[in-house]
Write a structure and sequence with these properties.
- The protein has one domain.
- Helices cover 79% and strands 0% of the residues.
- It is built from eight helices and no strands.
- Helix 1 packs parallel to helix 8, helix 4 packs parallel to helix 6 and helix 5 packs across helix 6.
């Protein structure tokens, strides 16, 4: 599918822009650029697995775990005046509430939700909350223009992307298998691909902030 192909190569938008302005990037942007290069590596591996009709679900889980640890570290070193111990305590509390609601929903509508589904949805909720907190922190600074702040574009891209894939991931789990068909999955794959394309474009914009600030 052409949308999927565009999604796969969209990673080159931040790769090329980051490389082009690499000398002008601050150290945090350079840290993020190395993350982009790692994402490129994962993208290549995922496409190779897909080409040989091999299961790539394990790779997606590995990417999410690596993503989790990287951005906990990345936001911490940025020192954005956030009490992360308190913040993550609140996030974990909200995730526990979310999991309890999922169990309740599972009971009420009698839909089977696998452990894998719980894993993905929990990670997605964590990322949505994490990035929402950083975005709010950016807007809380009156002397800062969010549109010229590289961190804004990174966090906004991630919040938007994980919100999209969370919605398209949880919805099929609430439907009976006989309702799902090939057309159904094609639509969800297109939405996921478009979300990835937009995310990579916004990542690319974050590297343009060096030019905006000059």
């Amino acid at each position: 599918m052409w949308v999927g192909n565009i999604s796969a190569i969209s990673i080159f938008v931040p790769v090329i822009l980051g490389l082009n302005y690499f000398k002008n990037l601050n150290k945090w942007q350079k840290y993020f650029y190395f993350y982009i290069l790692l994402s490129l590596l994962f993208e290549v591996l995922a496409n190779l697995l897909s080409y040989f009709d091999l299961n790539s679900l394990w790779l997606f889980k590995l990417i999410l775990i690596a993503d989790l640890f990287y951005f906990i570290w990345f936001y911490y070193i940025l020192d954005i005046n956030t009490n992360w111990i308190k913040t993550y305590s609140i996030v974990i509390f909200l995730i526990v509430i979310f999991i309890l609601l999922l169990f309740l929903l599972r009971r009420l509508i009698n839909v089977e939700i696998s452990f894998g589904s719980f894993f993905f949805m929990t990670i997605f909720v964590f990322f949505i909350l994490q990035n929402a907190i950083v975005v709010l922190n950016i807007f809380d600074k009156p002397d800062l223009n969010p549109s010229s702040n590289f961190l804004f574009w990174i966090t906004f891209a991630r919040m938007m992307y994980f919100l999209i894939i969370f919605l398209i991931y949880i919805y099929p789990n609430l439907l009976e298998s006989n309702v799902q068909n090939q057309c159904f999955w094609n639509v969800f794959n297109v939405i996921n691909a478009l979300g990835n394309i937009i995310c990579n474009i916004l990542y690319g914009i974050s590297f343009l902030c060096v030019k905006i600030n000059k």
